[in-house]
Structure formats: structure tokens, C-alpha cells
Amino acid sequence: MIMRSDQANFSRYTSGYDGTAKFLHWLVVLLLAAQFVIGWTMPGIHKGTRPDGLIAWHLGVGAALIAAVVVRIVWRLTHRPAPASLSPFLSVVSHVTHGLLYLALLAVPLLGWANASSRGWSVKLLGVLPYPSISGVGSPVGHAMGDIHGYLAWVLFALIALHIAAALFHRFVLKDQTLQRMLP
Ligand code: HEM
Ligand code: HEM
User: Which CATH number fits domain 4-182: 2.170.16, 1.10.8, 3.30.460, 1.20.950?
Assistant: First the structure.
């Protein structure tokens, strides 16, 4: 016989994340997909390059990403998802990977922002709300951060590939409910 509390636990297990957490997860996925495409197709940036065209789009999508990631992390810290029923090994691996994803989701945009500041470019949310400058104009450190930004974008890309492979592994090999936890 299925008790009312078992049913409640089952639905908590199958949809581990609340609607806001799911919305923020998929919003960040969309923004990131655009940001990688723009980052890898925009023209090379040199001294004196103006932040127009695709570069302006990279700064605009980047500003939205920073806001979405911060809101997402604050939401996550204040709203714990129901735990997944994973083996101890997979539980550690998934926590480590998610932790690294969050770290990269903070570090990559911050380094890009610092580089934009060092070039004297303003970063605005939705074209209106200006973010403060976090690196002095012409600062060599801010400049170097642009290079690290490009390398770390690859690290983030590799983590995402691993994460997607894991989601598909759960769905098609382990045939458990993990993928459903992040679906509507
Ligand atoms: C996770 C989000 C982001 C990703 C995946 C990303 C990705 C990239 C990529 C792939 C490049 C080209 C690197 C190269 O070809 O060497 C790039 C360059 C750049 N990005 Fe981002 N970016 C992100 C967020 C941001 C943000 C938030 C800003 C600023 C607000 C920003 C500003 C820049 C700037 C200024 C460059 C040129 C760096 C240079 O060449 O010195 N990016 N980004
Ligand atoms: C841009 C790409 C992505 C990023 C940066 C990303 C990031 C994350 C992070 C940080 C978490 C941990 C959530 C938490 O516990 O706070 C998570 C969970 C999850 N993601 Fe993604 N994700 C991405 C794409 C995807 C895609 C394409 C899928 C599906 C194929 C997916 C499926 C999932 C699932 C199922 C969970 C829940 C895992 C669990 O039950 O603990 N993600 N994602």
C-alpha cells in the first residue's frame, strides 16, 4: 500500500528542484550557449578595438549571465533541493562537478568583466544598469585576465560536456530519475 508520505517523498525525489531553480538552470544554459557562440565568433580584440557589434553582444549577454548566476547561487543557498538517491561514489562525483561548475560560472564572467573594465568598456545590464568598473583602465592585471578568461572558458566547456554526458548516462544507461529532476 502506498502511504501518503511515500507519495510525497516520491514526487520530491522525481522533481528534486523547485520551479525557480529549474527556470534559472535553463536560463543560464541558454545564455551560456549564446555566450560561447558569440565569444568564439566575435572579432579578435586589440588595443583600440571598439566594443561594437558582436563584442557589444558579448558584454550584454555577459552582464545578464552575471546577474542570472548570482540570483541562481543565492536561490540555491536558500532553497535546498530534495537529495538524489545516488550511490556514495556518484554522490561525491556529482557534488564535486556541480561545485566546479558553480566556481567556473563565477570565475569566467568575473575575469571577462575585469578585462572589459581594463579596456575602459562599460558593462550594463539590459543596456541600462551600469556595473562598476572592477579593474583600472590600462591595468596589466586586467589585461592578463582576458587571456585567462579565454582559457577558463574551455575548462567550463569541458565541465559542461562532462555534466551533459552524466545526465545522458543517468537517463539511458542507469535509467534512473536524475534527468527528470531538472525537467519541468
Ligand atoms: C561564462 C560566460 C562567458 C563565456 C563562456 C565567455 C567566453 C569567451 C570566449 C570564448 C572569448 C574568446 C577568447 C579568445 O578567443 O581568446 C571571450 C572573450 C572575451 N570576453 Fe567573454 N565569456 C563569458 C563572459 C564574459 C563576461 C561576463 C564579460 C564581460 C562583462 C566578458 C568579456 C570578454 C572580453 C572583454 C573578451 C576579450 C578578451 C581578450 O581578448 O582579451 N565575457 N569570452
Ligand atoms: C550550460 C550548461 C549547463 C550548466 C552550466 C549546468 C549546471 C548545473 C549545475 C551547477 C547543477 C547543480 C544544481 C544544484 O544542485 O545546485 C546542475 C544540475 C543538473 N543539470 Fe545542468 N547544467 C548545464 C546543462 C545541462 C543540460 C544540457 C542538462 C541535460 C541534458 C542538464 C541536466 C541537469 C540535471 C538533470 C541536474 C540535476 C542533477 C541532480 O539531480 O543533482 N544540465 N546543472
Answer: 1.20.950
